[in-house]
Sequence to fold (155 residues):
Amino acid sequence: MKFLDIGKVAEHSGVPPSTLRYYEEIGLIRSLWRHGLRRQFDGDVLLKLSLISLGKAAGFSLTEIAGMFGRDGRPDIPRAQLHARADELERQILDLRMLRDALRHVADCPASTHLECPSFRKLLKSTTRSRAVDHSRSHAATTAVTRKRSVRGPL
Fold:
């Protein structure tokens, strides 16, 4: 079994030692022992750090990522959660494509001002609608959490 000190883990993973210490503090990774003042890790920590990095890139919080590992530290990823996040990313991609296309149109629009351009006005309306939907989703999620807390008590 190959062991790596914190410096080697940082070098191979690209994750700074301070972040590695934080990940250890919150239970995402764990060192096996110390050699002097330097933490020693199992070589498998590099795979786990890659999974953590992928989760962060996908928009999962560190708490959500921690929940994707079993008590033994092995990945135990809930597929439904991945599907839900993939669906959310798909919606964001569609929104961003529409925004990109609208901005390109407005940039090339022959109208004398942006406010005279029907596509720009449509973009403004869709942005306002999108913010209203996001706000109501956020409010609904906050309300649901508040209700759960009041039923269960404080977290």
In short: The first helix runs from residue 6 to 13. The CA atoms of residues 1 and 9 lie 15 Å apart.
